[in-house]
Amino acid sequence: MDTPDxxxxxxxxxxxxxxxxxxxxxxxxxIEKFFLRHEATLTxxxxxxxxxxxxLSDNDLLDLLLRRxxxxxxxxAQAQASASTAxxxxxxxxxxxxxxxx
Length: 102
Prior knowledge:
CATH topology: DNA polymerase, domain 1
Number of helices: 6
CATH class: Mainly Alpha
CATH architecture: Orthogonal Bundle
Number of strands: 0
Low-confidence stretches: none
Strand content: under 5%
Distance between the termini: 47 Å
Oligomer: single chain
Mean pLDDT: 92
Order of helices and strands: HHHHHH
């Protein structure tokens, strides 16, 4: 049985990448950068977090990724619940682009 810290296998990674395809190009670009950086070390727990976040609408996901909103600020209770799971909260910072330093 896999533990949350077990790395996901190639088949699960392929399914996850397919599940993470989005309708908004901006989301796709940020998700692709995430996979480029983290796919070799992606755990079962992080994969679950990504899956939870993929239950969001494209606009809610983009608001989270661009730090325009935090999970508790999403309008719908179901969106708040999906974005607030422990695995989702763990993977969200990995998906977000680095803050711009001015």
